[in-house]
Each structure stands twice: as C-alpha cells, then as structure tokens.
Recover the amino acids of this structure.
C-alpha cells in the first residue's frame, strides 16, 4: 500500500498525464460514438427490419477481443497503425453497440398515444423527434452512453499496447517488470475512473428520468458539454501531435524500454523534442509503425529482423547478417545504424541448482534431460522460424508434453519457482542474475546473431542530422555487461527506467 | 360551395385488418355548431375524427374542412387549425402544464410574451389557476385536471375547429358532470366548430346542438336532441335504453 502511494507521488506528473490521456481517449471516443450511434439508432428505430440486423452486427463487433481488434487495424491505412488514432477508432467501434441499442429501445418504448398527440398538434417529423421522441428516449440513451463509457475505460487500458498512452501504460510496464505495485498504479486509478464515470452518468440518467428540468435547458447544457469535450479532445490530440519532432518506439519488455529511453534521452540531449511510444507490443507492431511513420526509430535485433521481419533463412555470420539486414531496410526507406555493442541472443536457461547438481553447461546437456522436463516459452519463441521447433530438431529434444506458452517475462519466475524446467529468455535479462538462473551454451550454433541496433526512418535522419548524430554516438557503447546491469537495475532493483538511462548517458 | 365548416361526403374507409370502419358516411357540421357523435365502441367514431385532421385519409368520398378537401391541405397547416383532444389525452410527460399548453404557439413561433399571456388566459379559461398549475407536471394532476390541460392545449392557437374524442370517458360521474358544465361555459365564450365523441347518449344530449348516431360505420340519424330522442330506429333505441338503465341504477343506489 505504502509502495503504491510513494510510486504515485514519485510519478505524479506522469500519472496526471496518463490519466489525462485516458480520459481524453474515453471522452473523445464516446462523444464520436454518440454522434454516430444516436442518428443510426433513430434511423433503425423507424425501420424495424433494419433494427435487428444492425444490432446483430454491432453485437459481433462487441465480441471481438480488443487486442485482436487493434491487431486487425494495424495494417489499415489512415485509421490503423499505432497511437491514439487507432485506439480511438477501436473504442468508437465498441461504443456504438450499447448506444444504438438503447436509442432504439428508448424510441420504441414511447407510448403511441403521446406520439399521436404530437402529430395531431401539427408537429413535423423533425419537430416530433426533437420535442417529444428524443427527450423521452434520453434517459435510455444516457444508459447506453454509460455502458459505452465504462467499457471504454476498460478497453482504453489495452490501448497502451499500441502506444495510445493512458493508464494501461503502467499496467503493461508493471507486467513486463513483474512488479505488482506498478500494475496497481495503473489499475487502481482506472477502476476508480470507471466507477466515477458510472456514478455520474447514472446520476444524470436519474435526473433526466425524473424530468425535473426543462428540455431546452438540457439541450443547452448537453451542447455545452459536447463542445467542451470536443475542444478538450482536439487540443489534446493537437498537443500530442505537436509534442515531439521525433517519435521513439520500443517493444514491450524491459530491455527495450531501457533502450528506447536511452535513444530518446540522447536525441533530447541534441536539443530535439522527442515523443515516446514505448511498450508497443511485439516486433511486427514496431516494424509496421516504423513503416507507416507512426514512430521514427526503435531498436531491433539483426537476427530478428532477418527472420521475423524479412523472412530470410537463418544465418550464423554476424557481420553478414548485419549487412544483409541493412540492405533490406534501406530498400524500404529505413536506415539501420551500427550495432549498439551487445548480442541479445536467445538464452536457454535452467535453474542454477539444476545446473550444478546435473552438471549442465550446454544445450546438449539439457536435451538429455528433456524427456522428464517441462519447458515454458514466450509466444514469440513458439512462433518464430528461429524458435522452438528448430531448436528441438537441432538438439533432438523430446519433452513429454508440448511446452507451456506464457508471457516471456513471467517465464523467468515460472522457471525459478519450479513450474517449468527450461525456458528461452534473453541473454541480457537482469533476472538471470536476480533469480540465480544459468544460461546454457549454444554448442551447435543454432541461434543466429541478435546484435542490437537502432533502425530509423531514412527521411527522419535526413531531416534531423542531430538525430543521426545522437544515434551514432550510442553505437558500440552498450556492452553486454552494461545492458545486463541496466536490466538488473530495472527488473530486480525496480529503479526508474528514465533514471537508469540518464545515469548511463552521464557516465 | 358548401356552407359547412366540416363536411363528409359519402366517405368510406377500410382498416388494414379489413374492418369497414366507415361505410358511405355523410355528415355536415356548421361553423360554431357542437355536433355530438354517439355510438357504441367500435362504431367508427374515432375514425371520423381522425379523418378531419388527416391522421387517416378516406378510401372513397371526400372530407372537406373549411370548404377544402382534406387531401389538398398541407397536413401540418391543417392540424394546426384543428384542435384535437385525444381519447387518452396524451399529455407530454416531460413537459410542465404550461409547456404542454405552449406547444402549438411554439411551433407557430410566437414570441415568449404572447405565448405566456395565452397560456395564462387558457389555464384560467379551463379553471386551472396558472400560479398554482403552470409549473406542475402531468403526473401531479388528477384525471379531470389532465383533461382540462388537454383542452387548453388543443385551444392554444385559437383553431376554428375542435375535435374531442371521448374527453370525459375515463372520469368519475361527478367530475364528468362538472366538466360538461365547464365545456358549455367555454363553448359560450369561444364558439368553435366542435365534434365531440361520446358513447353516452345522455352526454350527447347534454352537449350537442345536434346529435349524430353512428353504428357500424354508418350514420343512422343526425338531428336536434329532441328529434333523436323520438327516433324509433332500433339502433338509436338501444343507446337510449342504456341511458334509461343507468339512470334507474343510479336512482336505485340512492
Ligand atoms: N389502428 C387500427 N387498425 C385496424 N383497425 C382499427 C384500428 N383502429 C380501429 N380499427 C377498427 O375500425 C373500426 C372503427 O374503430 P374506431 O373508429 O376506433 O371506433 P370507436 O372510436 O367508435 O370505438 C373498428 O372495427 C376497429 O376495430
Ligand atoms: Mg374511439
């Protein structure tokens, strides 16, 4: 509890800005959803044959898990990609259903006599809608908006996966650091926000059903609210866009966060404003974001680029891999900078106690034990061409059960606590030292080199030579030991990533 | 050229479910006259009313309002010249009494002062002192008070024609008698062309300058009360007998 409060106090500026982003995401998407769903609901309410299929479509959209939805949208031009734009789109799609449904229900629930009275008094259809139908359906519509906004607060936490910011940032950061305090630092305010949104809209719903205020004043009040909201959202979006000349991205594990921060700060030291889009999910999300210009630079590993990005056969020669990857990037308008100085190969890890008692030093040694072991791997390792399948074949591993697929970061803890007996981690992971794990030697040279190097949009480097200078200055400066020490500081000592990067650059 | 304010010429109308709601129905109502239309439930009374303000249109024959075919009227303009008190009143539950009465002036874009003055005048006219009732909500009114608001709302823009569909149907006998007297007092003042629908012959005699009896979509008789009372038509006698029966019950209870 105390740890949580001191985290909030230490990060109060960041917390406020993440909370602000979260509110903007939810408010902006809900407003747009209302602007689309209410007219759609009005349209459908008058055409009963349309109402059913429309509700069905909206229902289907609702059941797509939000992470999958973000995935679908990544390659879509203009609206897709990473960042607040794509997140807003997904949140809008989710908001539509409840509002369409309650708009239809609210309008269809109006007493036919009351509607007939309006017609008989000489109202045009539009006057009937404005003066009678909408005011009477309003409590029901607000109920839908309430559901949309509350669901939105939840879904917006997932939006952090595509760099849209918001409180999900802390949740992802906490997950990748396996630090409950950081997870709670994001989850608690998100829950409080959801309760607050729920409570205030419920209150509004009750006020409206009590119909103790005149419709005209309500219109003025809602119009004012809408206008304020739009102004807030657009200023927020504008502020984000004007926020940084260079957008630095990173994947979603500790080392990438540290490297992203390192790049960001060294560019800032050249006097350029930087926007951080760290924690962007896996390799493919980062690659796509770099292609579309949503980010300008991030750190990739040569072997990963060769196999996962460019689908080339695995190769063992580290300089050869670097130059072919550099050529492949150059052809797509991107520049691979000289390597940072460490090779983050996959590390086949076992418990220190097993290594000592069973005298394990190479992966061959481990393959002998595989018949009575359980393995646990991250999602990416199971999927990639240089991952599990090839490893098992190269070393003749025979596990009695298929490997447990789990979050990469969690797999270290799973190994240490004995839930699995072998994992594939990062060679530079701070947890290796922190949890007394031992890396086995790749004696058959299965893994290609994974030299870390910054990759940037060529266009950006041309426009900002200071950025190129900053990146080149980092080349060759990050030794394996330095990287492992920084990962250890973040993962085991729970030090702030910004401070870790700052200390490194100050040395 | 017709001298009638409202005239039905040989009008027939079949409902979508095949029910013959009106069958060669002809009737004229003079300007400033109160016509009470009586008939049993399902006889076609509401259908007659809704043909006048074009909530329904005739399949055959012509409905003339102020000498003009209802089909030629712009329906919005027609409805604003024809006040309508619905069978179920249909007050807007999200508006105060004053706002309900001010609906048609609002549609006609009157100034706020003019609307305000008119609302006060009408609430006074229907016996609901504005300082006490203007700010009330429909669910804070008794059935009789709601019906009075319905009448005020229909009269708001001073329409020459007023249609009332069983306005006192759902009220207790005391309130009914009170509102009938009230209606006569108001009509003395405003002199509208009125069609008032009722299923009670006694009420028709009390309110109508003339009484029309409708049965199965046909007009059986339309004449001054005395002449209708003397009719020998079995369909009229049935309605008259019902009045006598209720009067007997009433005296038996005393
Ligand atoms: N909305 C409707 N749809 C179909 N038939 C209707 C409808 N309203 C009334 N009718 C039929 O039309 C006939 C006349 O109805 P109506 O004019 O409402 O009678 P009244 O008002 O005298 O009770 C009846 O047979 C009734 O069943
Ligand atoms: Mg009726």
């Amino acid at each position: 509890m105390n740890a949580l409060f001191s985290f909030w106090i230490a990060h109060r500026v960041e917390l406020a800005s993440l909370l602000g982003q979260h509110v903007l995401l939810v408010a902006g998407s809900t407003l747009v959803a209302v602007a689309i769903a209410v007219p759609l609901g009005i349209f459908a309410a008058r055409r009963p044959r349309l109402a059913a299929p429309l509700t069905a479509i909206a229902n289907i959209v609702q059941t797509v898990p939000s992470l999958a939805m973000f995935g679908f949208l990544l390659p879509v031009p203009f609206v897709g990609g990473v960042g607040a734009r794509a997140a807003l789109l997904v949140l809008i799609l989710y908001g539509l259903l409840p509002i369409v449904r309650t708009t239809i229900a609210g309008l269809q629930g109006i007493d036919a006599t009351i509607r007939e009275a309006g017609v008989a008094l000489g109202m045009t259809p539009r006057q009937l809608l404005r003066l009678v139908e909408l005011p009477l359906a309003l409590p029901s519509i607000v109920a839908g908006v309430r559901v949309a906004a509350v669901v939105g607060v939840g879904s917006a936490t997932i939006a952090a996966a595509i760099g849209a910011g918001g409180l999900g940032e802390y949740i992802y950061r906490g997950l990748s650091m396996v630090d409950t305090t950081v997870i709670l630092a994001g989850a608690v305010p998100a829950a409080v926000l959801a309760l607050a949104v729920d409570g205030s809209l419920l209150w509004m719903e009750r006020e409206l059903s009590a119909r103790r205020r005149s419709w005209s004043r309500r219109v003025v009040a809602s119009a004012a609210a809408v206008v304020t909201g739009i102004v807030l959202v657009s200023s927020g979006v504008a502020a984000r866009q004007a926020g940084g000349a260079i957008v630095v991205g990173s994947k979603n594990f500790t080392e990438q966060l540290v490297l992203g921060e390192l790049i960001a700060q060294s560019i800032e030291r050249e006097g350029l404003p930087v926007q951080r889009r760290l924690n962007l999910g896996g390799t493919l999300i980062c690659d796509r974001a770099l292609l579309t210009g949503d980010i300008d630079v991030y750190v990739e590993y040569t072997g990963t680029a060769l196999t996962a990005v460019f689908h080339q056969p695995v190769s063992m020669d580290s300089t050869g891999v670097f130059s072919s990857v550099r050529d492949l990037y150059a052809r797509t308008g991107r520049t691979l900078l000289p390597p940072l100085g460490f090779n983050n190969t996959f590390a086949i890890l076992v418990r220190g106690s097993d290594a000592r008692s069973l005298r394990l030093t190479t992966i061959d040694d481990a393959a002998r034990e595989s018949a009575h072991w359980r393995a646990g791997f991250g999602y990416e390792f199971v999927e990639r061409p240089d991952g599990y399948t090839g490893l098992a074949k190269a070393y003749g591993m025979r596990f009695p059960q298929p490997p447990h697929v789990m979050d990469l970061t969690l797999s270290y803890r799973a190994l240490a606590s004995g839930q699995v007996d072998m994992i594939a981690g990062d060679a530079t992971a701070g947890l290796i030292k922190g949890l007394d794990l031992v890396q086995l030697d790749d004696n058959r040279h299965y893994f290609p080199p994974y030299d870390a190097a910054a990759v940037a949009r060529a266009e950006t480097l041309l426009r900002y030579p200071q950025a190129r200078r900053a990146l080149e200055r980092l080349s060759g400066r990050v030794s394996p030991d330095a990287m492992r020490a920084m990962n250890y500081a973040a993962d085991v000592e729970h030090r702030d990533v910004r401070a870790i990067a700052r200390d490194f650059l100050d040395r | 050229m017709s001298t009638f304010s409202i005239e039905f010429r040989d009008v027939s109308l079949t409902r979508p479910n095949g029910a013959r709601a009106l069958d060669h129905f002809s009737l004229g109502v003079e300007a400033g006259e109160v016509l009470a239309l009586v008939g049993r439930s399902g006889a076609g009374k509401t259908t007659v009313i809704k043909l006048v303000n074009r909530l329904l249109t005739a399949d055959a024959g012509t409905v003339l309002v102020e000498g003009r075919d209802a089909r030629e009227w712009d329906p919005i303009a027609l409805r604003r010249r024809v006040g309508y008190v619905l069978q179920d009143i249909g007050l807007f539950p999200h508006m105060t009494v004053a706002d309900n009465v001010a609906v048609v002036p609002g549609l006609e874009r009157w100034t706020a002062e003019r609307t305000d003055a008119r609302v006060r005048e009408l609430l006074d006219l229907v016996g609901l002192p504005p300082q006490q009732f203007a700010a009330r909500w429909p669910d804070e009114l008794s059935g009789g008070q709601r019906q009075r608001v319905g009448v005020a709302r229909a009269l708001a823009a001073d329409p020459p024609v007023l249609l009332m569909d069983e306005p006192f149907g759902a009220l207790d006998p005391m309130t009914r008698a009170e509102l009938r007297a009230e209606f006569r007092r108001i009509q003395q003042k405003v002199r509208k062309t009125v069609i008032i629908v009722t299923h009670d012959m006694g009420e028709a005699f009390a309110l109508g300058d003339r009484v029309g009896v409708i049965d199965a979509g046909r007009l059986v008789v339309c004449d001054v009360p005395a002449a209708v009372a003397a009719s020998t038509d079995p369909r009229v006698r049935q309605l008259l007998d019902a009045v006598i029966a209720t009067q007997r019950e009433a005296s038996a209870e005393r």
Observations:
- The interface with chain B takes residues 111, 113-114, 116-124, 127, 131-132, 135-136, 211, 214-215 of chain A (CB under 8 Å).
- The mean pLDDT of chain A is 85.
